[in-house]
Amino acid sequence: MGILEGKNILVTGVLTDASIAFQVARIAQEEGANVVLTAFPRPTLTQRIAKKLPSGPDNPPAVIELDVTNEEHLGGLEEQLRALGWDRVDGVVHSIGFAPQDALGGNFLNTKWEDVATAVQISAYSLKSLTMACLPLMKAGGSVVGLTFDARAAWPVYDWMGVAKAGLESTNRYLARYLGKEGIRFNLVAAGPIKTMAAKNIPGFEGITEGWSKSAPLGWDITDVVPTAKATVALLSDWFPATTAEIIHVDGGVHAMGGQFD
Q1: Residues designated as active site
Q2: Do the Cβ atoms of 31 and 2 come closer than 8 Å?
Q3: What does pTM read for this prediction?
């Protein structure tokens, strides 16, 4: 039996088979989980990618269109999951992040509030929005795991996304405080820089990746998302029953080393 045997896991953010979320869904299925995916703005793309999961092209997981800024989508999530036969949600993966181009790439001092607000709503506030949408189906408790990039430092070109990630990390702690009584654990995985589609949209992303593998005691491969996915799946399981409001670093050890990138 796998560590997620029989659990119902909702996974957001599957865009390509190179994404962290895809590998989380893959490993979750291999560990015995029932998986449903959400997608926005192109659910048809996610439906095609879903056919590459272990369940196979003839039995891919369902894909629900979910815009985390759309109250109608959020309000209808419970009904859509129940229609798929789910009477509970055991785990939720928050792999959602977006910032307009003007909020990235060294434009920090010139970014307009409207762009900052978009980054914060989609990348941080959505953790609360998604949790509340799933809460009616989490009466037996469960685990919510999000993905972050260490927000303790001001990274080159990350700019307002870095601020949004700091907000995500704080939101995670407050959710742990208020919903711990419901038996729900909230944790984040702080990955090192990974060459995903989202990362490619950050101008000057190489300014973060340069030197990372040399600074990491364990080394670091910017194309390997599996270590991050494995940590996420572990936190979704029952193997961390008393761990909440935590940030697990999967970055080769860089977060604990001295020095700074610039």
Answers
A1: 158, 165
A2: yes
A3: 0.95
